[in-house]
Structures are given as C-alpha cells and as structure tokens.
C-alpha cells in the first residue's frame, strides 16, 4: 500500500549482475545510494523487503558500492531502530571496519552517530577496535587519522572515565606524536577534551595521572617537537590545564 509492488521489484532487481552488464555498470552503486530513502519510505516494519538486497550490496565486489553503504549506515540505523540495528546492521558495520580504507572512512566519519545508537554493552565492545583506525593501508593518508581524532572528541561522552583512560588515552597520545602537524593539532584538542572529561566526572586521580604522563612524555622530551607539543596542549587547554600542570610540576 506504500509504493506499487512492480516499482519495488524493479528497484530490488538493480542488484542483478546481468543488469550491470546490459543497463549501467554503476547501477548497484545507484541502488546503494537510494537505499536509505527507500527504507524510510517503506518504514522499519517493511525492512524485511530490503534486508536481502542490503546484504547483497554490502558484499558487492565493487568497493564504491560498499563505500556508499558505509557512509549512510548511521542514517539507516536511525530509521530501523536499536533492535534491527543490532541484529542486521552491526554485523555489516563490523565488516566495513575491516574493509579497504576507502570503505572504512565511511564508517569513521559517522562513527559517533552510529555508536550512540547502540546499547551501552554493545557499544563498549568497540573500545577494543578503535585502536585499529590508527593503522591505514597508506601511511600517508593522514586525513584518516585526523578524522579519527575528531570523532574521538565526540565519542568521549559515550564512555565512562575509566574506559577513556584505559583505551582512548593511548590512541590520543599516539596521535599527538603523528608526523603530520594537522593531525597533532587536532589531537591536542582531544587530549584537553579527555582531561575535561575526567574532571567533569570527578575522576581527579585519572586526570592527575594523565597530566603527569603528558609532562613526562612531552615536557621532558629530548626532541624539540615533543616540548612544542606540550606547549600547544597547554595553549589549547588555556589556564585550567596550565594550572593543573603547575600543581604537579
């Protein structure tokens, strides 16, 4: 009753490999691009009509098709709700995390938007995988690491201070030593955001421990770039951070 059945059948047939050879070589990509809109029109109660097509597209041999889905999986999660997302989208999301960088960037750009839709226990499982984003197929792809730092600033609110200290702190310190200055600068903002997270949640011991680690690692670094990083972190954190550093110096 929502859309004519022949029209839906025509849309679903876009994943047929024969049509890619006779109609349009990028027809599967067009199908993937339109899928969130079709899902919104049909509603989550009719997701079963699209589920098989989505899974077919998610395993397409063309990385451009998978990339298109990766960029919109967070939008589809909003449409489907938490239960369908956990059952049908999380496995595909996990596959995208292990895909080519061209596909992984799609989930990375909207990582916060997707993780916030998951239940806390399911969301916590991804703490172990965030470190994998630091490694890329091409080490010169610095924008990938820049995007990771930006997303982590948002993701901080989704986890408790202990999880931030145990998992995200290590990633932040690694990014602060990146070879590319743009990555280092956004990472300094991440470090300050972590400190603000600790003190906002009265995790003062974690905050002081982290500050002490920053002093040892950067303030007393034998290389000038490390000492410069410490100065920039203080600059980003302004007086609050500088005062805390002064207390333990």
TrEMBL record:
What are the protein's UniProt keywords?
A: Membrane, Repeat, Transmembrane, Transmembrane helix
Q: What is this protein called?
A: PP4R1 phosphatase
The yes or no answer to whether the keyword Transmembrane is present is: yes
What InterPro entries does its record include?
A: ARM-like, ARM-type_fold, PP2A_Regulatory_Subunit_A
The membrane spanning regions, by residue number, are: 229-248
The record's Gene Ontology cellular component field reads:
cytoplasm
Which Gene3D superfamilies did the record assign?
Leucine-rich Repeat Variant
Q: Name one GO molecular function term.
A: protein phosphatase regulator activity
Q: Per the record's keyword annotation, is Nucleus included, yes or no?
A: no
């Amino acid at each position: 009753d929502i859309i004519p059945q022949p029209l839906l059948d025509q849309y679903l047939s876009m994943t047929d490999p024969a049509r890619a050879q006779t109609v349009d070589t990028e027809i599967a990509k067009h199908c993937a691009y339109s899928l969130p809109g079709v899902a919104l029109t049909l509603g989550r109660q009719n997701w079963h009509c699209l589920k098989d097509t989505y899974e077919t597209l998610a395993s397409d041999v063309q990385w451009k098709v998978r990339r298109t889905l990766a960029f919109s999986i967070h939008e589809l999660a909003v449409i489907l709700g938490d239960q369908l997302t956990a059952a049908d989208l999380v496995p595909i999301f996990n596959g995208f995390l292990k895909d080519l960088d061209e596909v992984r960037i799609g989930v990375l750009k909207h990582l916060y938007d997707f993780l916030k839709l998951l239940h806390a226990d399911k969301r916590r499982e991804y703490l172990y995988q965030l470190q994998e984003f630091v490694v890329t197929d091409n080490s010169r792809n610095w924008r990938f690491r820049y995007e990771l730092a930006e997303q982590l600033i948002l993701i901080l609110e989704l986890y408790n201070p202990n999880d931030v200290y145990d998992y995200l702190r290590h990633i932040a310190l690694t990014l602060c030593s990146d070879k590319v200055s743009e990555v280092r600068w956004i990472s300094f903002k991440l470090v300050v955001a972590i400190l603000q997270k600790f003190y906002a949640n009265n995790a003062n011991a974690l905050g002081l421990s982290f500050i002490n680690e920053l002093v040892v690692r950067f303030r007393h670094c034998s290389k000038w770039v490390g000492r410069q990083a410490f100065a920039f972190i203080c600059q980003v954190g302004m007086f609050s951070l500088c005062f805390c550093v002064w207390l333990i110096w």
